[in-house]
Every structure is written in structure tokens, then in C-alpha cells.
């Protein structure tokens, strides 16, 4: 499988070339982390159970290739990897994992806590024979605590970690985010932890375990809402698209669609009011400052909402851009991917799988010396088993 690489640079193999990653994770959090490592140049061997059809996400949707097991969900987190079909419940499979772990720099897994101990593949079992190994473990609730044995999925993390209580219409039900954001963010934290542990290993020769929980990661990025509650004791309200501490900030209906407005300070508010011919509101004590606007949020919206409905989306955007008030359209995905900005930033890449072009989301990282590379399209389950098992040096297969 070949790939077209829109990013050119002096060092085309990425900053992590030579780093060997053994990926025992599945679904989204772990694969997100290992795809990032692969994009940065690492050699990633993905272990998949052939008896279950491989990674669960191979069955989540319709395959983009006839007769294959490559769904868009699987594609989203599994490029730059080679697939080894292996039953780790068998003594033969366990022996292969131990051999690969001795050659690897990183092992990542997302079994339930204790799930790999019965196979002798947990960190405690591998630490002595693989002292330089960075062993990353992802689970729903973590390796400790009363919930440690419970399974973990993105929806569970969004609910248990409080995000759903903050999301959605004020009068509606709690709402999840439209994509698996708890999984993705946990994967990003995992990637940071792995790179930090590799730095320590390179300085000291000492590997370690990096341990994460979906729920912990979710709680960590409650950010201002979480800290506000901890210091005030007041539960935040769901406000739909409005901001808890900035006003006006949100989605507003126009005569032909919607715009987002992010009026971050009082001078921007005054310029916004001049466009709407509502200069008097900027001098009104109820609205002259951001704290006052927050206190009188409903009264201000009672004026803004019907006034903005008399203007077109293009007119609002053009006027706000001219006076430097943050504004933007609410785009559908066809508009997103047709935009010149997406093209300029290489945020869509095309890779070839058996002669079929696969369109994938680009990596957002831009490097001046070690650009990300797109070397291998998402593989079919076990596609690289023969090559990996045929050599005593199974890594460096790019």
C-alpha cells in the first residue's frame, strides 16, 4: 500500500523514526495515540484477534473496500500501522508478544485492569524482561478505585465525567458531544505520557508504566467549568451554545442561516452594537460591561435575537470581520472539506489501499524539520502477519 504525502520536509521519516510500538489497543483511545505516534514516524505493529474479526471498529459501519474490513471508523485511527493477527490467549500468541515486547520501545493496551495478567502480559510480568519498555495502559476508570473493573466507553466517560451535564439545550436532556471526544482526548493524553516516558527512558535507561482512565481524562478537561464548581460549589447550567462567562458568545440565527459570535470584550461589544444600530445598548448600565451583560443575559438576547434575524449571514460576517469582532459561519462537513483553508492546511490526505484511494483526515501538527508522514494506509486484519512473523527483526517495516 502506498501513500501520497502532501507534506514535504528535510527529514521525511518523522521525529520518531526508529521508535517501535506494540499496539494491543482497540476502538479509539489507544488507536488514536498510536496513529499519532505512527504519523510522527514510529513503526507500529497492531495486534488483532483473528477470532473476533480484529478491532471492533472494523464492524462499525460499511467497508469502503469491497470484500474488505476497512470501515471509515477504523480508518480514522489506524493509518501508519501494520496488522498482526494473533490470539494472545494461546501460549504461542503469548510467546510472540513477549518476543515483540523485548524489541519494542512502547507497548500500549486497553484491556480491563488485570485482563492481561492471566496471559502473563501485564506490566508486572514484562517489567523484568523488558526494563526499557514504556508500557501504557488505558481503561475506563483506571487501575485503582471502586470502579476499576467496570468497562469503559466514550459515552460512559462523557456521562460519568460530567461533560453531558454541561452539554445541550437548557430545557433538554443531557447531551453527548457529536464525536467520541472523551476517547480522542484520552488518546492525546496517552501520547503525551508516552513521549514523556520515552524522554525519561532515553536519559536513564529506565522504562515505566503510563496509566490513564477515560473518566480521569474527561474530568481533567472540564477546565473552567470544573474549577468554577470546585471553588464556588455552584453547579453549572446547560446553556446550549452560549458561554457561561462571556456574553454575547454563541450561535445566532440570521435571515438565511446561523452565525457564531464571540464578543470577548467591551470594545468589541460597542462595535457590534454600531453595526446593529443599537449604540444605546452599549451605554446601558445593564450591558456596558461583560459582568453586567451576564447578569442581564436574557434581556440582551431579547433584543439581539430578533435584530440579527433581519440580517443575512454573509452581511453579519462581512461587517464583523471589518470591525474585528470574532465571527464565523456554522458549516456542514461538505462546506468544511470544500474550503480553501482546509486545502491550504493539508487537512485531507489521500492514501492508496490496493489501488483504491482512501481519503483521511490530515494530522494537524506542522513541523519545520520533521513533518508528519503518511506511509501506510489502514490495513486489513492480519495483512502484515506473514512479513512480521517471518523475521527475527519484525519492526522497521515501513
Structural commentary:
Helices cover 36% and strands 14% of the residues. With 398 residues, it is of the alpha/beta class. It folds into two domains: 20-221 and 338-389, Rossmann fold (3-Layer(aba) Sandwich), CATH 3.40.50; 258-329, formyl-coa transferase, domain 3, CATH 3.30.1540.10. The chain has a six-stranded parallel sheet with strand order 3-2-1-4-5-6, sandwiched between helices. α7 packs across α8 (214-220). The longest helix has 24 residues, at 181-204. The protein is elongated, with a radius of gyration of 25 Å.
CATH architecture annotation name of the largest domain = 3-Layer(aba) Sandwich
- What is the H-and-E element order? EHEHEHEHEHHHEHHEEHHHHHEHHEEH
> Uncertain runs with pLDDT below 50, 5 residues or more?
none
Molecular shape:
elongated
* Structural class by secondary-structure content: alpha/beta
Could you say what the CATH topology of the largest domain is called?
Rossmann fold
Sheet with the most strands? Answer: 6 strands, parallel
Summed up, the domain count is 2
- Provide the CATH superfamily of the largest domain: Crotonobetainyl-coa:carnitine coa-transferase, domain 1
State the helical fraction.
25-40%
Overall pLDDT confidence: 94
The CA-CA distance between the termini, in Å, is 10 Å
How large is the share of residues in beta strands? 5-15%
Count of distinct strands: 11
Number of helices: 17
Spatial extent as radius of gyration: 25 Å
Strand ordering within the main sheet: 3-2-1-4-5-6
The CATH class of the largest domain is identified as: Alpha Beta
